[in-house]
Amino acid sequence: MKMTKKILLGAAALVAALAFVGCGAKDDDTNLVDITGKGNSYAIDFTNETDAAMRGYKPTALKHAGGLVKITIDESSSDPSTPVKAGGVMGFIFDLKDNADNKDAKDFFIIGVRKGGYYVSKFTGVTNLQAYNFGYSNKEDNTKADGTVEKEYKEAFQAITLPTDANGNPYVYVYAFGNNDGSFSWKILNASATEKVKSLSDKEFSNLDFTSDMILAEGTIPAEDTGYDKQTQNKLAVYANVYAQGTLIGNWDFVGTYKEAEIDE
Hints:
This protein has 265 residues and is mainly beta. It has three helices and 13 strands. It has a seven-stranded antiparallel sheet. Strands 3-12-5-6-7-8 form a six-stranded antiparallel sheet, with no helix packed on it. The radius of gyration is 17 Å and the shape is globular.
């Protein structure tokens, strides 16, 4: 099936645009945790009763040059084994694609957020999205999966103070945008950005002017790291890592995406 190229016009179009169904390359693993939902809203409510972290992810069916998602972590999420009492990590994956040398492997960038911290990394050649650190290193002996590489832009975990909603739940807006020179801009935004990003048209998304009081963290991933020389569209995804003996409850709500590319099914 060939999908025609079109421009997304605001959050209302996301219901059709962000249906997480298999399309294009096959998923590599069975998810260990359930991420539920449809349209532009997804959720996790999972308790990990094992002694190892458990992971899950959902890729979008379409390709996009950018996305902005609100991540809300329920205050009841907890993990008694960690000082920060974080039940796990909720993440936003962008530029998700097949590895050029191994079609059974994936390349992607990820922004991960938990209570009190965040990280930003690029992973290349991932063959098991469920493995510890995506297979790049082993927790016990630091062995690494063949062909899997991580590049850290912000090491886990950078300290961050998240705003809270009326129910006391921490949340942030996570933004990634593919630039015309092939680079990606990323930002983590606080509560003061709420009204600005409440409803986005495609034109508004590409011309957002975030003021300094909105930005909790930001950076640029250079074109030399993406391998692109122009704005490029690939899949987005939501991701969760539930710590051993932890409970992770939260939501991903897509506020906007930028462009929609045609793909083959």
